[in-house]
Amino acid sequence: MTAKKLMQGIKTVNRYIDTGFLVKFIGLFLVFYYANQFFVKLISPQTQWYNAYIATHYNYVSWAISSLTHMSGYIGELMGVNNYIKGDGLLATATNRGVYVKWQCIGLGIYSFWLAFILAHKMSIGKKLLYSVGGIILMWLLNCFRIALLLYGIAHNLKPWKKSLKFIGAINHHDLYNYVCYMIIIAGIYFYYRKNNRNTAKVEMK
Fold this sequence. Notes:
Strand content: 5-15%
Number of strands: 5
Oligomer: single chain
């Protein structure tokens, strides 16, 4: 009797919330998020989990940092800021002041959220690949522009960017980037469901 009531409860909840999708989404997000966190420990020499071989040959975090610094530097040049890459992840201006791009700047949590959302849905592999790659590229480009703007602010000694690198009250550029990305994700979710509901309605009318 208890099992029957439980099944009825699940069916009732499913009318309003897709519990299957929710479970997959949360599960995938946790896997992606904590897998990235663990990988960071594998490539960080100061941790007990450090693995020199993985850090040398399979360091996708380092590749992501390199892509961000190079593209941000290119955007900075278009904005009139002469810059160069110094060391590992330091994007410096001609006056040797610059932006140090660390692994926290990549946005691994945001990428994990987006990938979990897409992969948890029932759609073709082609669409999943398109939405996954497209979303990541868009967020990566936003990050590049954020870093380039920060470099521009430092090069021109703009007051809102000095010392604390904060503006709009207590919101810093890192938080603002996260907010913008999540707004884009929410907008993408909204338009996805809107389009999906329209297609469902057309099928029912036929």
